[in-house]
Amino acid sequence: MTTDTNCLFCNIVAGTIPSTQVYSDELVIVFKDINPKAQIHLLVVPREHIISLNEIEQRHDVLIGHIIRLLPKIAKEQGLNDGFRTVINTGAGGGQVVFHLHVHLLGGKGLHGVGFVE
Fold first, then answer.
1. Catalytic (active site) residue 104
2. 118 part of a folded domain
3. Mean pLDDT of the 38-50 span
4. pTM for this one?
5. How buried is residue 41: exposed, middle or buried, by Cβ count under 10 Å (0-12/13-18/19+)?
6. Bridging pattern class, strands 40-46 and 21-24
7. Which CATH number do you get for residue 46?
């Protein structure tokens, strides 16, 4: 598994930068966004340093499937029974600010009618 010591999310995964984690397993960690755009705003971050969706390879199929299946479970645990939004920004032109693949999970108050920018 690759990491980048200069990457914010790699340092959060390693525990050298604190976060408010809500879930963790051998493939991902999930923590609260420090600049939330909705009442619930979590980041699902792979433990492996992958820059963006542009770098996804076939070897990542299990990881991506795991993340997709995990999102509804985490949303339900957060009380998002009426629905939720997921966002993956890819590249600078797509609004990506932290260049480590991550999925935004958003829901609750503040979500409706609000555009999304990382």
1. no
2. no
3. 97
4. 0.92
5. buried
6. unpaired
7. 3.30.428.10
